[in-house]
Structure formats: C-alpha cells, structure tokens
Amino acid sequence: MSVTKLEHLGVLRGGPEAIAAWCQSHPGEVLDLSAANLQGANLSGLNLAGANFSRADLTGVNFSGAMLDKADFSGAKMERADLREGSFLYANFTAAQLRSADLRLGRFCAANFTEANLRETNCIGSDFRKAMFVKSKLRGAVLRHAKLREADMMGARMKDVDFRESNLTGANLSGTELIKAKFCEANLGRVNFRGADMRGADLRTSNLNEAVLTDTNLSGANLSAANLSGANSSDATLSGAMLRKTDLTNADFSGANLSGVRLWGAHMRGARFSRCKLSWSHRLYIGMLAGLKAI
Fold it and tell me: Distance (Å, rounded) from C-alpha 277 to C-alpha 155?
C-alpha cells in the first residue's frame, strides 16, 4: 500500500476532526481509500464527500447518516453495508456488490448503479431520482415508497422487486425483467416498459397513464382498477391478464394478444383494439360498448 493511502487511512481512523483538518489543509484533494480493507468499520455521520472507495472491501461498513456525495464506490464489496439516511448524490456504484445492504431513506439522486448487484437490498423510502440502474441486478429488492422519477433502469433484472407505492414517473424500464414484481398503488405515469417481461406482475390500482407498454409481456398480470388511460400497449401480450374495473380510456391495444383477458367492468371508451387477438365473446362484449374505435 502506498504512503499516501496509509496516510489517508490514518486520517479516516482519526474521526471527524482529523478528516475536517485534512480537508482544510488539502483543498481540492480527495481521500484515496481505493482497494482498502475496511470491513465492519464504523463511518457513520462522517463527511467523506468525493472519497475514492473503488475496489475497496466495505463489507458490513456503517455509513449511516454519512455525507458521501460524488464518492466513488465502483467495484467495491458492500454486502450488508448500512447506508441508511446517508447522502450519496452523484455517487458512483458501478459494478459494486451491495447484496443485502440497507439503503433505507438514503439520498441517491443521479447516482450510478450500472451493473451493480443490489439483490435483496432494503431501499424503502430512498430517493433515486434520475439515478442509473442500467443492467443492474435487483432481484428481491424492496423499493416501497421510493422516489424513482426519471430513473434509468434499462435492462435491469428485477424479478420479485417490491415497488409498491413508489413514484417512477417518466422512468425508463425498457427491456427489464419484472416477473412477479409488485407495483400496487405505484405512480407509473409515462414510464417506458417497452419490451419488458412483466409476467405475473401485480399492478393493481397503479397509475399507468400514458405509459409505454409496447411489446411488453404482461401474461397473467393483475391490472385490476389500474389507470391505463392513454397508455400504448400495442403488440403487447396480455393473455390471461386481469383488467377488472381498469381504466382503458383512449388506450392503444393494436396488435396485442388479449386471449383469456378478463375485462369485467373495464372502462374502454376510445380504446383501440385493431388487429388484436381476442376471443369471439370478448369481441362481442367490446363491440357492444359505445364509443370504441374499430376492432
């Protein structure tokens, strides 16, 4: 280990006063703790903004309440780390290993989680607005009440993820794996789900106003009482899906597979069903409703 890194480790172990003194005497520099072994360290409440933790072993480290804006955690081992209520604005978590970490109520706006492993993480109430999760792994993660407006989650693997009551307005979830994901009461307005695998997803009472669901697989999904007004579901697969009391006003299902779909009590005024796959009973039912565009 270099002399500089040994010095920086000493500063870190000196606590808040040592860190503040070092920052004052080294303006424009950042603590370099790359590849350091800090397993189980207690760094709660410290101001480590901009610090370099790339490739470091941070297993079980306590970062709760710490200031780590623009810090670099790329390639770091962070399994079971405690990041509760910390500030990680613009932080870099590219390819970091965060499995089973606690991110509750953290601030991660515009943070980069590209190709990171966030499986089984607890992210309840966290702020991920404009964060990037491209090709990340989030299977089994809990993101209830999370803020994910305009987040980019393209290609992420999110089977069994819990998004209940979260706000994902304008987010990009194209090409994602969302099998059996939970979206009850989530705000999904204008979300791009193009090409996503959402088989068996629970979207009851969610808001999908003007969402893009083109080429999405929603087989067996439950969209009861959801708002799909103005949504684009062209060429989507909804075989066996539940749309009971769903608002489909002005929605587009052109070319969609609606075989076995349950539409009891759905509001379909202005919806488009051209070229879609429907049973004869459904065609008769839809055709009897006033205001529908041609099937």
Answer: 28
Scored b (16 or more CB within 10 A) or e, 81-111 reads bbbbbbbbbbbbbbbbbbbbbbbbbbbbbbb
pLDDT in tens, the chain (295 residues): 555 777 888 888 787 677 778 777 887 788 899 999 999 999 999 999 999 999 999 999 999 999 999 999 999 999 999 999 999 999 999 999 999 999 999 999 999 999 999 999 999 999 999 999 999 999 999 999 999 999 999 999 999 999 999 999 999 999 999 999 999 999 999 999 999 999 999 999 999 999 999 999 999 999 999 999 999 999 999 999 999 999 999 999 999 999 989 888 899 899 998 888 876 445 545 554 434 444 4
Q: How far apart are CA 14 and CA 12, in angstroms?
A: 5
| CA 161 to centroid of chain Cα atoms | 9
Kindly report each contact of residues 31-35 with a partner whose C-beta sits within 8 Å and lies 24 or more positions away, as own/partner.
32/4, 32/5, 32/8, 33/5, 33/8, 33/9, 34/5, 34/72
Closest CA to 116 of 68, 69, 78: 78
- The pTM of the full predicted model, rounded to 2 decimals, is 0.92
Residues in the chain: 295
